[in-house]
Amino acid sequence: SQFRNLVEQGQRPTVLFIGCSDSRVLPYLILDSGPGELFIVRNVGNFVPPYDASHGYHGTAAAVEFAVLNLDVSEIIVCGHNHCGAVRALYTDLPAEANHMAKWLDLGRDAVLPVTLSEEALRRTEQRSVALQLERLMGYPMVRRRVEEGRLYLRGWHYLIEEGRVLVL
To answer: Of 49, 81, 100, 121, which is most buried, counting CB atoms within 10 Å of its CB?
Structure first.
């Protein structure tokens, strides 16, 4: 069976997909793919933490390193989406006890626009955030090296949920 082969031969995905935890964003559906084809990282806001060589707990950073160094993926897709709660939260006050969320949202703050909040501002911020995460990926030495060698391609997408369409940024 397909699953037995995936176990016996190991995984060989060619794409690292960094997407939002939003339950409406379905990577396998968006990419029309199946088991073994994608290495997926999902988190609030599809954010990428900076490469800082610290020894803390950085699940997303560890996944980037594993995908590039161990799986030798040839593409990294950062996929944002419309109606993103993380991006909307960048423009609002959080509950006092949301300490982890407040710190995590700092990874998207540079995408915020100095404008009155509107649907257009949110869409633009979502797209700016994707670009920001791609820039941050270039701070990972193994990513930068492979991109410069032409062995790794970074892609920024903005998924439109109600249309089932992807805008390539």
So the answer is: 81
Check pLDDT > 90 for residue 8: no
Using CA atoms, how far apart are residues 107 and 104, in angstroms rounded to an integer?
Answer: 6
pTM here is: 0.93
In a 10 Å sphere around its CB, with 0-12 CB exposed, 13-18 middle and 19+ buried, how is residue 114 labelled?
Answer: exposed
Distance between CA 78 and CA 11 in Å, rounded?
A: 21
Degrees, nearest 5: CA angle 20-68-73: 80
> Is the pLDDT score of 65 beyond 70?
yes
The DSSP annotation for the chain comes to -HHHHHHHH----SEEEEEE--TT--HHHHTT--TTSEEEEEEGGG---------S--HHHHHHHIIIIIS--SEEEEEEETT-HHHHHTTSPPPTT-HHHHHHHGGGGGG--SS---HHHHHHHHHHHHHHHHHHHTTSHHHHHHHHTTS-EEEEEEEEGGGTEEEE-
pLDDT band at residue 6 under the 50/70/90 scheme: low
